[in-house]
Amino acid sequence: MPRNLVRYQQTGSDLHFITFSCYRRQPYLGTPEARELFEKSLEAMRLRYDFWITGYVVMPEHVHLLVGEPPGVLLSKVLQALKLSVAVQRRERPFWQARYYDFNVYTEKKRVEKLRYMHRNPVTRGLVSKPWDWPWSSFRHHLSGRAGTVEIESEWTAARRKRATGETHISARCGAPSVLSGREP
Fold first, then answer.
1. Residue 79 has pLDDT above 80, yes or no
2. Is residue 8 in some structural domain?
3. Structural domain containing residue 148
4. What's the pLDDT at 151?
5. Is it the case that residue 182 has pLDDT exceeding 80?
6. In terms of Cα–Cα distance, which of 39, 42, 40 is closest to 51?
């Protein structure tokens, strides 16, 4: 492990802005099928480890996630399981770089900054002209409440839960937007 690298996990309330890359930044996620496979694996891990996802984007050679911590398990173990889940379903070897970048997000300002950064990444890279046009991200959900392959923790999701069960536990989940705005966070 590199010197001076400190990961603050099991903080209880912080979100984590995670970035990890395909091996040597190869575009192993360069096809719609590969990106859809990643989304399905991300949702499977979300369900298995009971953590929430506030935002994500799948790029051709890397991924950004904005996630909460799973109860009772280190986030690093969840990321290891996620990466393994994708790698075993693909032919490229090795598939992932060994490490990942983790930034603790502990303010609303940083949460919004990280969501905007990840949602604009496909536009910045010239893959699409508008964030809405990149289906492998949480942007559409944050804009309209649209449900996708990956459940995004937001006011939209909390409202759906409340209608379905008469309850909401959004207040217990860090990182959800405080108001329904219908706009990009």
1. yes
2. no
3. 15-172
4. 98
5. no
6. 42
Q: What's the rounded Cα separation, in Å, for the pair 51 and 183?
A: 24
CB atoms within 10 A of CB 159: 14
Q: CB of 91 within 8 A of CB of 159?
A: no
Which residue type is seen at 62? H
What is the number of structural domains in the chain? 1
pLDDT at 56 over 70: yes
Per the listing, tokens 């392959």 go with 149
* Over residues 124-146, mean pLDDT: 97
Residue 111 domain-assigned (yes or no): yes
Whether pLDDT at 45 is above 80: yes
5 in a structural domain:
no
Residue 154 lies in a domain: yes
- Taking the alpha carbons at both ends of the chain, their separation in whole angstroms is 35
Helix (H, G, I), strand (E, B) or coil at 11: coil
CATH number of the domain residue 86 falls in:
3.30.70.1290
Q: Which residues pair with 64 in a beta bridge?
A: 19, 57
